[in-house]
Amino acid sequence: MRTQVAIIGGGPSGLLLSQLLNRAGIATVVLERSTRDHVLSRIRAGVLEQGTVRMLHEAGCADRMMREGHPHHGCYLSTDQGRFRVDFTEACGQEVMVYGQTEVTHDLYDAQDAIGATILHEVSDVVLHDLTGDHPHVTFTHGGQAQRLDCDWIAGCDGFHGVSRKSIPEHVRQEFERVYPFGWLGVLSRTKPAAEELIYANHPRGFALASMRSEHLSRYYIQVPLTDKAEAWSDEAFWTEIRRRLPGDVADSMETGPTIEKSIAPLRSFVTEPMRWGRLFLVGDAAHIVPPTGAKGLNLAVSDVHYLYEALVEAHRSLRGVEAYSERALKRVWGAMRFSWWMTSILHRFPDQSEFDQKIQENELHILRDMPSARETMARSYVGLPF
Ligand code: RFL
Ligand code: PHB
User: Fold this and answer.
1) Whose Cα sits closest to atom 6 in ligand 2?
2) 306 C-alpha to center of ligand 2: Å?
3) Fold entry, domain 180-266+347-383
4) Would residue 382 show up in a list of annotated catalytic residues for this protein?
5) Can you tell me whether residue 205 is helix, strand or coil?
6) Rounded to whole angstroms, how far apart are CA atoms 31 and 117?
7) How far apart are CA 295 and CA 259, in angstroms?
8) Any alpha helices (H) in the chain, and if so which ranges?
9) Torsional class of 238: left (φ above 0), alpha (ψ -120 to 50), beta (otherwise)
10) Which of 8, 44, 48 to mutate to test the pocket of ligand 1 (most atoms within 8 A of CB)?
11) Nearest ligand, measured from the Cα of 333
C-alpha cells in the first residue's frame, strides 16, 4: 500500500488532519488501534476555542456544531466567599463554543466517509521505519494480515500512549513533566446544567467544575485523591460532594439524577521536544498533555494540525514549513501549558498546601475578581492564543 501521509491514530487530531489534507488533494491513510465505536465512546473535551471552530469550518464539518453548539461569552469562578464572572467578550472581544469532543469526532468521521477517505480500524503491531531516510514506511497487522504502508510523511496522532513519540530515539527526545497529586472524577448526567455558563470552583474540600454538553446534558467534575476508584463513588455521594463545593444558590437549585458515565482522570502537564524527527511529526496528545483545567488539550491538538497541514501543503514547493513545524507548534504549546498549569494551581487544593500557599491562591483569585487587566489576560488564554 502507498499513500502520501500515513496518519497513526484516528482520534480528533488524526481525523482532522486527514480531512484537511484530502480536501487539499493530498492522499492519506489513517491507522487506528480501536473500533470506531470505542473512539466515539470517549467523553472528553467540551470547550472549543475560536481557532478550533475556524479549523472545523475549513475542514467542511462545522454545520452541526453551528446548529447545536453553544457559544459562551464568559464563565464563573467561585470561592467559599462567593463567585464572580469573567466576561470574555468584554475582556477580549471573543467567545468559546461549548460542543463535545464526541460530537466533533462524530462529525469528522461523517466527513471522512463522505469523501471516501481510508481509515483502517483495529490495526495492531504498528511500527514506524526509516524516519530519517528516503523510504519512510509503517508496518502493522490488520485483519490478521501483516501489512506495509509506504509514504512520504508520517503524522503521529496516536495520543499519549501511542508508538510515535517512542519512535524518536531517546538521545534526541527531551521530556518535561509535572504530575499533580490528585485526579478529576468526571460524571455525565441527563440533567439540566446547573448554570447557563461553566463554573470553576475553588473550595476548601477541593476543586469542582460544572460544565455541560446541551440543555439536557450536564458534565461535572470534582477533584479527588488518586487512590479513589470511580466505582466506589455512588451517584448520591457524588451529588452530595459537588453540591458542597459549588456556590450555595447553584447547589440548592441544581437538578441531579442517574449518571451515564463516571471515570477518574489523573492530571499531568507533559511536553516532548522536538515535535519532528525526520519525516515523523508528533501531533496533539502524542506530543503533549495538559491538565484539563484550562480546557486546552483538544484545542492544542487542533493548532498542531493547523501548523502541520500548512507545512505539508507547502512541502512540494518548499520544506521551510516542515522544518519549522516543531518550533512553531512548541511556541503555542508552552503558552497553553503555562495557562493550564496556572489555572490548575489557583483552583485546586494541594495535599501539602501551606497557609502561605493558601493566601497566595486567594490573592490570585482576588486579582482576577478586582482587576480588568488580569481578567483580560485570563480571557485571552481561555478563548485561545492566536494561530
Ligand atoms: P487521542 O484523542 O488520544 O487520540 C489518539 C488515537 O490514537 C489511537 N492510538 C493508536 N492507533 C494506532 N496505533 C497505535 N499504536 C495507537 N495508540 C493509540 C487511540 O486509540 C486514539 O483513537 O489524541 P488526539 O487526537 O491528539 O486528541 C487529543 C484530545 O483527545 C485531548 O487533548 C482532549 O480530550 C483533552 N481534554 C480537553 N481538551 C480540550 O481542549 N478542552 C476540554 O474541555 C478538555 N477536557 C480533556 C478534557 C481530556 C480529559 N481526559 C479524560 C483525559 C477532559 C478530560 C476528562
Ligand atoms: C468539559 O465540559 O468536559 C470540560 C469543560 C472545561 C474544562 C474541562 C472539561 O476546563
Assistant:
1) 295
2) 22
3) D-Amino Acid Oxidase; Chain A, domain 2 (3.30.9)
4) yes
5) coil
6) 12
7) 22
8) 12-23, 36-41, 50-58, 63-68, 88-92, 101-114, 235-245, 248-253, 297-314, 320-347, 355-370, 372-383
9) alpha
10) 44
11) 1
Q: Is 106 a catalytic residue?
A: no
Ligand 2: centre distance to CA 220 (Å): 8
Among the options 137, 203, 288, 296, which is catalytic?
A: 296
pLDDT tens digits, one per residue of 244-277 = 999 999 999 999 999 999 999 999 999 999 999 9
Q: Which of 99, 109, 200, 307 is catalytic?
A: 200
CA distance 119 to 140: 14
Instruction: Mark the ranges of the chain whose per-residue pLDDT is less than 70.
Output: none
165 lines ligand 1 (CB under 6 A): no
Cα angle 34, 37, 40; round to 5: 95
The ranges assigned to domains in the chain are: 5-72+96-176+268-344, 180-266+347-383
Would you say the C-alpha torsion 346, 348, 350, 353 has a positive or negative sign? positive
Choices 3.50.50.60, 3.90.226.10, 3.40.50.1240, 3.30.70.270: CATH for 5-72+96-176+268-344: 3.50.50.60
Nearest ligand to the C-alpha atom of residue 193: 2
Output the nine-digit C-alpha cell for 5: 501521509
Contacts of 221 (CB under 8 A, 6+ apart): 184, 185, 186, 187, 207, 208, 209, 211, 292
